UniProtKB/TrEMBL annotation:
Keywords: Oxidoreductase. PANTHER family: DEHYDROGENASE/REDUCTASE SDR FAMILY MEMBER 7B (PTHR44196), SHORT-CHAIN DEHYDROGENASE-RELATED (PTHR44196:SF2). One of its GO terms (cellular component) is membrane. This is SDR family oxidoreductase. GO terms for molecular function: oxidoreductase activity. Residues 2-179 form the Ketoreductase domain. Belongs to the short-chain dehydrogenases/reductases (SDR) family. It comes from Streptomyces sp. SID14436.
């Protein structure tokens, strides 16, 4: 039986991945900050699907948290076969309205943690000749939209480059780039969602399902919905200055975790 480690597992896309992978018979390592929610999630998934679910409380904005997860990913006796780097958050406000501390925390979670955890997992996976990593990014990676979009653009570029370097090793890497997903994300960030049209909202379970299917197909980038694929295709034809104005009216963030 294979094991998947999911960061940000207790809500949104992370929870959707946990449900889908548990239903498919995978054991899990569930990572988030709230130990109470982690234990409740682990118990529910174990009771419903009969899988084993470890819990690991870790804050990926903190070096100790990153190190704890990296150590688990590097455990050769209890290997992790699939890593879902899903932890993330958004900041409410435009550039210079957000504190520097919050901007740097975002880069820590979205970039440094993704780099370190992907590296820890991929090194162990390469030794075994098999494994997969899904780094949850966003369609915000493809539009000019502040630190959030820039950090997700980094995730996409890093993942594509790492996937190319590991080609033929048996280790697959993919950046998952959803649009707006109905999760707790906007509420936690204090963002309103009234200006977002209904057609732009995605279901977290369908996003997870599409992401796993695209990973199995060997894709290095996945935009898990035809509507957003079309939208991102059209975005290539729109001047970047105009696109930045459009995205500023629909909120600071696309594709919540």
């Amino acid at each position: 039986m294979t094991t998947a480690l999911i960061t940000g597992s207790t809500a949104g896309i992370g929870a959707a991945f946990a449900r889908r992978l548990a239903a498919d018979g995978h054991d899990l390592v569930l990572v988030a900050r709230d130990i109470v929610r982690l234990r409740e999630q682990a118990t529910e998934l174990h009771d419903r699907h009969g899988i084993e679910a470890e819990v690991l409380s870790a804050d990926l904005a903190d070096d100790k948290g990153i190190e704890a997860v990296a150590e688990r990913l590097g455990d050769r006796k209890n290997p992790v076969d699939l890593l879902i780097n899903n932890a993330g958050f958004g900041n409410k406000g435009r550039y210079l309205d957000v504190s520097m501390a919050d901007e740097l925390r975002m880069i820590k979670v979205h970039c440094e943690a993704v780099l370190r955890l992907t590296s820890a997992a991929a090194e162990a996976m390469r030794e075994r000749g098999r494994g997969g990593v899904v780094n949850v990014a966003s369609v915000a990676a493809f539009v000019p939209r502040g630190t959030y979009g820039a950090s997700k653009a980094w995730v996409v570029q890093f993942t594509q480059g790492a996937a190319k370097d590991l080609a033929g090793s048996g280790v697959r890497l993919m950046a998952l780039c959803p649009g707006f997903v109905r999760t707790e994300f906007h509420e936690r960030a204090g963002m309103g969602t009234g200006s977002i049209p209904n057609w732009m909202w995605l279901d977290a379970d369908k996003v997870a399902e599409a992401g796993l299917a695209d990973l199995a197909r060997g894709k290095s980038v996945s935009i898990p919905d035809p509507r957003y694929k079309a939208l991102m295709g059209a975005a290539k034809l729109v001047p970047r200055g105009m696109l930045g104005g459009i995205t500023s009216r629909t909120g600071r963030k696309y594709g919540p975790q």
